[in-house]
Amino acid sequence: MCDEFILVKRDQMELESEGYELLERLQPFLKEIVKDDYWPGTRLMGHYADVYYFRCSPDAVDILLSYSTSLYSWVQTRVPDDLCFLRQGQPWLINTAHERESHIVTDVEEVLNRLEESGLLFRDLSVFYP
């Protein structure tokens, strides 16, 4: 489904050794690092961050899960910020962890049905954003 994910290291915040260890373990999956003030769900004002783009694979996901099993725990300083997943270069799962806010961007009926059946709380925002 998703072929890429991102993690963010903000310039104005420290990153603990556990976060650097994670980035080192993910090195085989690294595609690029972009210095930017924007990533899905966030726009910085007057600051920049390193946005790490990784190839998504089962091995990479296993590494991610070994550091956290909660979407909202991807908060710097312990680990990099805002784990997000991309599909064909477009945001699919947008996560702003410190705000405890996430969005899934899809119109694929099968995905919508599986999400609904998961029992998790989802709101259909398409009524607000046609």
Structure description:
The chain has 130 residues and is α+β, with helices and mostly antiparallel strands. The chain has one domain. The protein is 22% helix and 33% strand. It contains three helices and eight strands; from the N terminus they run βαββββαβββα. The chain has helices at 17-25, 58-67, 109-117, and strands spanning 4-10, 30-36, 38-39, 42-43, 49-55, 81-87, 90-96, 101-104. A six-stranded antiparallel beta sheet has the order 2-5-1-6-7-8, with no helix packed on it. A hairpin with a 2-residue loop joins β6 and β7 (90-96). It is globular, with a radius of gyration of 15 Å.
Main sheet: strands, sense, barrel: 6 strands, antiparallel
Distance between the termini: 24 Å
Question: Percent of residues in helical segments?
Answer: 10-25%
Class computed from helices, strands and strand pairing: alpha+beta
Placed side by side, the strands forming the largest sheet appear as 2-5-1-6-7-8
| Order of helix and strand elements from N to C terminus | EHEEEEHEEEH
What do the pLDDT scores average to? 87
Low-confidence stretches: none
3D shape: globular
